[in-house]
Amino acid sequence: xxxxxxxxxxxxxxxxxxxxxxxxxxxxxxxxxxxxxxxxxxxxxxxxxxxxxxxxxxxxxxxxxxxxxxxxxxxxxxxxxxxxxxxxxxxxxxxxxxxxxxxxxxxxxxxxxxxxxxxxxxxxxxxxxxxxxxxxxxxxxxxxxxxxxxxxxxxxxxxxxxxxxxxxxxxxxxxxxxxxxxxxxxxxxxxxxxxxxxxxxxxxxxxxxxxxxxxxxxxxxxxxxxxxxxxxxxxxxxxxxxxxxxxxxxxxxxxxxxxxxxxxxxxxxxxxxxxxxxxxxx
Length: 282
What we know:
Helices cover about 60% and strands about 5% of the residues. The protein is mainly alpha-helical and about 280 residues long. Helix 3 (about 75-95) runs parallel beside helix 7 and helix 7 crosses helix 8.
């Protein structure tokens, strides 16, 4: 099995075509991704406004809003969505991140989870065309912060527009901070498995026979076959500090932060006193 291209700076291995092809234009790919994200965000906003303002459409609208509220209360879409996402996170990270190997009889029906990925960079542009493994690792672990900052900027702009149009700032700052916290929690919760998998690509090596007579073997990085998994390779040594830094930030600190938040809001939730922090963690 060989998935290495000799001109790796301008080519990448495409499994569908089983060969090396030219790297696509980065501007076109990311423009398409930006358009898809923008369209999805616009559709979500329109859908949210339609649901929140349907009650103002006369008696029929109020009846439809009451019926939708009863359906949501009886079915509970949000808890079921959280269970599905959590199940995906466990199935997607057991092997690549935590090194857990289950029997095939337990995992053959979960292979469908591999078709779902929140690795935005990997979906938008081939990883081999981005650059060195160091750059890929930094970009793969840092892009969620950019998404969080963009969302926070949009929420802040919305709050400023409301303040300028209405002239009222009652609880506006607190409500905006709560929405920002909810957005940050939502993004980290969704991208944690894919980001953790991209971080562990800096440690996933595969051994190859290089001499059939002496049975000498060498290990190379699966994500970048130009990198030799040895301390003799300066690029591999340089990945070590970056890996451990982001390992502490994502697979370790992110779940601990979620646990700390749950423990912090536990008394308020049990007493049914839902404050801004508990509302942001829903």
